[in-house]
Amino acid sequence: MKKTTEKNNTFPISSIRRVKGSRRFVREKVLQILVSHFVSGSDINELIDNIFYRDYKIDSDNEVTETAPKEKTNKILTEEELEELEADAGIDWREEDIKLAHTIINGALAENDFVVEKLKEISKHWRYERISIIDRVLILMAVSEILHCPEIPIKVSINEVVDIAKIYSTDKSTQFINGILDTILTFLMNENKVNKTGRGLK
Description:
2 domains; disordered N terminus
């Protein structure tokens, strides 16, 4: 007789363990999304679903379904794989958190070519390829906020990515990121590309 097992009623984990979102948490998740996108080339919307919303496609038998065409079946996660990915608690995002995440991501994708060009121009003593992907993305995120989040003060945007760099990057990263952003900010201000309003003027 074939042995059968009942599904765990507490699955998925994120349905029973929740934490409140915050702006810092938003930026950390956006960092994960953008690094994954640039490193693996994964679809940005799928990464947002997986990392930000913790929403995964699942088929425990790995069968072809209407939402899982045959050629993409290998991308459907089993329950065991999903449990590993959902080791963290689920996140309860506020509407303003969701808006901020999408604004930073869309702005980062829009400004990527500009930031790459500036990094190559500014970091003369470093080959662009040698710059940590985390540092590159944090700089990109700050530029995105500066240009696309008019209500967020420039100092906040820079300080946030520098603080995140202290956690996820190297000891030298904070000084490097600060220096690069200072140069980029000077250029943007001279070109009258920075438009802040309300709280963003502080």
